[in-house]
Design goal:
- This protein has about 525 residues and is mainly β.
- It is built from four helices and 40 strands.
- The radius of gyration is 23 Å and the shape is globular.
Amino acid sequence: MRLRLRGWVGLLAVAVIGAAAVCAWAAGRQPAWVSVDAAGKLVYRTLPRGDRIVDFSYAGYMGGGVTLPKVPVARTVAPSGGDDTAAIQRAIDEVSAMALKDGFRGAVLLAPGTFQCSGPLNIAACGVVLRGSGTGAGGTTLKMTGEPHVAVAMGGDEKVKALGTPAHIAEAYVPSGAQTITLDDASPFAAGDSIRITRVTTPQWLHFMGMDTMVRDGKPEVWVGNAIHTMRRVAARNGNVLTLDVPLTDSYDRAFLPPEGAEVLKVDVSGGIEQDGVESLHIVAPPRSVAFTDPLFRLVNLHGLRDGWVRDLAADDTTEGIDAAEDVFRITMEDVAIHHTTTITSAAKPADFSLRGGQLLMLRCSSVGDDEMYVMTGPRNQGPNVVLDSTFRGTGHIQPHQRWATGLLVDNAHVPGGGIDLMNRGQMGTGHGWAMGWGVVWNSSAATLLIQNPPGAANWSVGSSGEETTAAMKIIGVHPQDEGPPLPQGYIESPGHVVQPASLYKAQLAERLGAAALKALEP
């Protein structure tokens, strides 16, 4: 009993400190986590070990700040009144066989009218676009028929091959937000190299995170598996110091790593595709109330894709929306609107936007429906990923889903009837545990906000509105009041009052690339 009370006292102390911190913010006695100085430059407050809010501006097509291209039409397909799957796929294959010109082969244009498709449309070559004639009246509707399937799949069979022998990070601690790492020997690396940074999962780290004792139905739950990988490119090398193309969204603490530290390996990435898109389509699936484990109609699957886009898409009753897999990078999802008329029947929920890759930008997206994951991340997902200027109506949630994703920014997003949660999901699913670290909710709003601080990491809510809630780690089959004390609350700054800069992503993008880069975000 004494040990249990000691734990309660410790958590109570954390809660008191957190409440005091919120009061201090309100009184203006603490520096802002991100502010603008007299010269118009962004100033970041750091945690004691150097961690800071990440520069999220690298999310999006071509790494952010690049306007989506308008690819010339190479083939046009008209609706037949019957099953159009084969005709559309034939046009895609013909364009896929064309030579690349300035990085593109061409667009397949679907003429105005209604197309019927009983199977998926597959894009598997670089520089190919599937384009409708608009989502409104006089535009193009793609009606999904037959057995459940995905409407559009874009991607290649990406392979990652190790080159040479690994080096290791020499620093005792690399903070989240860092863009340089020091190696024990960086001589094999050069600017332009693709690298894979590997954090081996050690028993010490699992214990530190409180993720080593999860049991459900009498069986141990495995949280993150053997390792977490982060893909980056070398921007420059100076001696043993590598400058990375994109900041790191996680920290690397040698105390919780093997003695040699985190591994850095040069890799060759091949087999994927790039410069592909789907746009200006209205996609309709038959409304169905089914369980998540049933066959589902899905909107768009992305895999093995870099520098692509999904824009100006309207979808009705696709149970699952856009799924960007782990090997998908630098993608913009722009003006995508998903509408549901039915709800799922199972405890497991579908996702309208599944962000499992890196440098993913959702811009002016929306969902309407209840009992949904509007936006979720996948296991071991390393950002930066951004949800910007988006609205989701219903009882669903923006909620990182499982197993230590890092680097998500929810910026000027609104969930008036649901929640935004950067949280520990505990035993939910197969042991999702801590789902998010180093995440930020900026000038956003929701009915409820659940922002929790993981051990050794942080999550922030800045300038956001909604009921700031607390919760214990979820234990399946136990009433919430018996789960234990609330977990530590994240850093809450200026609750209910919008801060400057009005958009963190836009401010970071303008500072990195200049104000002209903001034109890429215009409708």
